[in-house]
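During the second year of the project, the team shifted from modelling isolated chains to modelling whole assemblies. The rationale, set out in the original proposal, was that interfaces cannot be judged from single-chain predictions alone. As a representative example for this report, we include one of the complexes processed in the last quarter. Its constituent sequences, exactly as entered into the pipeline, are reproduced here:
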Amino acid sequence: MTCREMNAALDKGALTGAAAEHAAQCEKCARLVRALERGADAATPGNVAAIQAALLADMRPVRVLAAPGFYLAALVAVFAGAVALGIVLLHPTGWPVLSAAQRAAVFLPLAGCAVLLALWLERQMTPGRRYGAALGLAAAALAAVLAGAMATVFHPAAEEGFVAHGLVCLRAGLLFALPVGLAIRFILLRGAVLQPARVGAALGLLAGLAGLAVLETHCPDLNAFHIWVWHGLVVVVSTIAGLAAGRLLYKV
Amino acid sequence: MVRYQQGDGEAATALVELLSPQLLRFFAAQMGNRTDADDMLQEVWLRIHRVRHTYRSSEPLLPWVYAIARRVRVDSFRKRRRIGAREVADGVIPERAAAEEHPASGLPPFAQMVAALPESQREVLTLLKVNGLSIDEVARATSSTAGAVKQKAHRAYERLRALLAGVGR
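Output from the structure prediction step:
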């Protein structure tokens, strides 16, 4: 066994077999093992009684969080409900003008990213859950795919009233993003968020994606500049607002 | 923990007694200061109490506890840094603590030894070696992946081997 292979054995705790043999022969590893064992020295806290008294002073039964599926369903329902409401209220005039490729390029990564964000957010409600990091990375990757897809499937064109028309879309998108963000925040407050800034940004991104989905079904303007700037700004503004408001989620 | 959630005071006191020494070691090994560690221990129990409803009995307890403890440590570190920055601005230069003497083993105390490691490696090593968590539990507690935890731990071992080679000879 080499010192490098010894590292894997050290991860497991007590050394056995080949690892113990190596530690007996290799001076460097023997010193490391002895030094690491010193970390387990006993420590006696002096304020246990005070802590127990503080806890007992506020002892009452609590209602445990519902199953993860409940909160995941709630997050997805908020997102889907807002998009459905947007389609009903604003009319899907943009949907017929989109080609099949454009629909697939926009809505598939958008839906995937929304589901991953909902999964990640649900996991952030409980400390110490598994796969939190992997889901967060996957959601960020799909958000990048969505941005890339939107940058390639639409074509730039000259447009009159670029700002005036754009502001209407920005306002409409944010108007749908805001209640989604508030509703998600309400759900997340039931849990214990330990990373308020990241969770706030993810919340804002999810809300912004709801606004973007509404705009992509409603707005018939296929000018790439209009979509990149004004529709994209809905997601950017919403994410930044979520990041800034992250502290409001901070309960722990 | 489930009985604690149901309002059983005896269960709460038993849990505090059971986990406090481990938590104290977690804080002391990383902060190297017993007074700060005691303060953080108190703080972590108050936070655990506040969010005890978020623990699900189907999940392991230790990653849940240490994820909260980790947050307390980060908050405390930031607070100390803010206060430290103010003290330096006032012209007060803190005296460097005298290095502890090596005990009979010829090895430095654990806290002093891991102080030479980057924060993320120190945290992983403490959870693995001081608190006895498994790789998977550390990954959960630190919102990381098992692969990333292993990588940090192995880098820490390499660094400590090099460091210890020059100690007590």
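Residues 3-40 of chain A form one domain. The two ends of chain A are 45 Å apart (CA to CA).
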